[in-house]
């Protein structure tokens, strides 16, 4: 197979959802269809720590790094699928957002009883900003949930994205009969001997006498008249999300979803450099960028894995690449590719693939590596506005030097955000998830021998202001006036109420969600 054919069969995506919507369950189903795992329950058992299988990646066993499920690769229907994990729960961090910078599409899973939840909304904003396609799977139809039409309205109202159903549920919960699949012109039957009933053969079938079937047909007709038409271009631009219904737990509708998703999901995209040029996935020179660095939480080891999204060319073991930030050459010899159950050392990886580079401190998040004529770095990854904050200080006041050095480097690396209060000079750390503080504390101790004390400040709302509007008198007990690491002024508001109060009091001061001059 030529490299072009290899690239064209890549489909790289992430699943965005709120904890408990069914991400793990669906991931397992997908891996099963791809033959990457034999039994459902494998990924799940890993998640809960009950996994006893002996052949997980050596690196994970030896060093305690949980990387296996970070990237899962399998072949299905002529495509090579890469699923990137977006950790939730206590593992939520800026890396979760950055992972979305490395995919070409997103799958959004929604619990039909709960609708759109907080974490889904946050992740969706990032995906929307990138303008990549989003495919929606509404899960748990085997249970009673909300009205499907309500759920579609929520997509529009809460997320601001138009939707087009690809199939429609016939009943739900105890009355769930299956899916009215107008895309494939068939009914997918939930229980019964035959799984698929083509529309052409449906006349006279007992299902047609079921009131939920009649309702589904009516809804489908209504949608055909009044809903959005399917528009592939709008889907690819992220303006329209195709919606699928199903039940991951009973593996119902998941394969239908996968087939359709792989039909419409895009191939690897080109990537912009800081000069505004696009690097094409078929460019023969190798290039890639680091979107996440997974530090090892095991105190006996300092090593880390840098996750690299391949943008162009072909990775070959042992190749030399230029690390554009430092201008130095590095050899990519200790590199891992990820599979669901076993470690496969990458022999070659092309655009769309993810490789894991063993790292002893060489790489930073956002780094570009490239060969040949590619000399310009990719656009930097965005930073994500933190929501939780901690005051930080050195435990031992005599050890300021290592404390300052550690903070400076880890902040520059993108591990955490740092702010300094104008009035007290206090240092404050900002993160999107608790995990970032833990990793930060751990790395300060191990890598910089600096013990730190962190005091929780809780949630805050960050807003930047224009430097010329800066006035220390605007600071009050409900906000903290601070500067970020670039010296840009900002307020940390106690809550939205405090922010509104400020807006009323200082209507002329512009509050910005991102700093700009
Ligand atoms: P997550 O990764 O998004 O956090 O969700 P996960 O797949 O772990 O699923 C969360 C819970 O929802 C699990 O139940 C799972 O079995 C259940 N679930 C997932 N898909 C469906 C579905 O289609 N229908 C129904 N009825 N339930 C579903 P749990 O009780 O937390 O775990 P377990 O005891 O079943 O292992």
TrEMBL record:
Alphabetized Pfam families for the sequence: EF-G_D2, GTP_EFTU, RF3_C
UniProt keyword annotation of Cell wall biogenesis/degradation present: no
A Gene Ontology molecular function term of the record: GTPase activity
GO biological process: regulation of translational termination
Amino-acid positions noted as binding GTP in the UniProt annotation, renumbered to this chain: 17-24, 85-89, 139-142
Subcellular location: Cytoplasm
CDD domains: RF3
Predominant cellular place of this UniProt entry's protein: cytoplasm
SUPFAM superfamilies to which the protein is assigned, alphabetical: EF-G C-terminal domain-like, P-loop containing nucleoside triphosphate hydrolases, Translation proteins
Family stated for the protein in its record: Belongs to the TRAFAC class translation factor GTPase superfamily. Classic translation factor GTPase family. PrfC subfamily.
Function, in words: Increases the formation of ribosomal termination complexes and stimulates activities of RF-1 and RF-2. It binds guanine nucleotides and has strong preference for UGA stop codons. It may interact directly with the ribosome. The stimulation of RF-1 and RF-2 is significantly reduced by GTP and GDP, but not by GMP.
Protein name: Peptide chain release factor 3
Organism per entry: Lactococcus termiticola
This protein's encoding gene: prfC
């Amino acid at each position: 197979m030529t490299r072009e054919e290899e690239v064209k069969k890549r489909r790289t995506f992430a699943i965005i959802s709120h904890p408990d919507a069914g991400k793990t369950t669906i991931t397992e189903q997908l891996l099963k269809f791809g033959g990457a795992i034999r039994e459902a329950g494998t990924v799940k058992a890993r998640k809960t720590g009950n996994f006893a299988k002996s052949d997980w990646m050596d690196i994970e066993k030896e060093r305690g790094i949980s990387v296996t499920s970070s990237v899962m690769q399998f072949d299905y229907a002529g495509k090579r699928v890469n699923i990137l994990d977006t950790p939730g729960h206590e593992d939520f961090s800026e890396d979760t957002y950055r992972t979305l910078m490395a995919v070409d599409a997103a799958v959004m899973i929604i619990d039909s009883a709960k609708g759109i939840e907080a974490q889904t909304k946050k992740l969706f904003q990032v995906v929307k900003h990138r303008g990549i396609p989003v495919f929606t799977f509404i899960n748990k139809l085997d249970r009673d949930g909300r009205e499907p039409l309500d759920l579609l309205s929520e997509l529009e109202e809460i997320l601001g994205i138009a939707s087009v159903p690809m199939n429609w549920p016939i009943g739900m919960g105890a009355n769930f009969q299956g899916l009215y699949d107008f895309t494939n012109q068939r009914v997918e039957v939930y229980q019964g001997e035959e799984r698929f009933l083509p529309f052409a053969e449906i006349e006279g079938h007992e299902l047609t006498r079921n009131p939920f079937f009649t309702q589904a047909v009516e809804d489908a007709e209504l949608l055909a008249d009044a809903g959005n038409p399917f528009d592939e271009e709008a889907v690819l631009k992220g303006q329209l999300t195709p919606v699928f219904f199903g039940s991951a737990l009973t593996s119902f509708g998941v394969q239908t979803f996968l087939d359709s998703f792989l039909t419409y999901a895009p191939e690897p995209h080109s990537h912009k450099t800081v000069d505004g040029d696009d690097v094409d996935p078929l460019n023969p020179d190798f290039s890639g960028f680091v979107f996440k660095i997974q530090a090892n939480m095991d105190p006996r080891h300092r090593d880390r894995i840098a996750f690299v999204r391949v943008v162009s060319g072909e990775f070959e073991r042992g190749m030399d690449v230029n690390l554009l930030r430092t201008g130095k050459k590095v050899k990519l010899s200790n590199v891992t590719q990820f599979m669901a159950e076993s470690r496969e050392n990458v022999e070659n990886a092309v655009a769309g693939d993810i490789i894991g580079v063993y790292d002893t401190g060489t790489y930073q998040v956002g780094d570009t590596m490239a060969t040949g004529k590619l000399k310009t770095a990719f656009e930097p990854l965005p930073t994500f506005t933190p929501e939780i904050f901690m005051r930080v200080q050195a435990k031992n006041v005599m050890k300021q030097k290592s404390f300052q050095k550690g903070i400076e480097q880890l902040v520059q690396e993108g591990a955490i955000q740092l702010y300094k209060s104008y009035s007290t000079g206090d240092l404050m750390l900002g993160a999107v998830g608790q995990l970032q503080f833990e990793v930060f504390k751990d790395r300060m101790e191990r890598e910089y021998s600096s013990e730190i004390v962190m005091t929780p400040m809780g949630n805050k709302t960050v807003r930047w202001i224009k430097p010329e509007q800066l006035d220390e008198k605007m600071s009050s007990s409900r906000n903290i006036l601070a500067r970020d690491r670039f010296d840009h002024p900002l307020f940390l508001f106690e809550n939205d109420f405090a922010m509104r109060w400020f807006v009323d009091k200082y209507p002329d001061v512009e509050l910005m969600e991102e700093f700009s001059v």
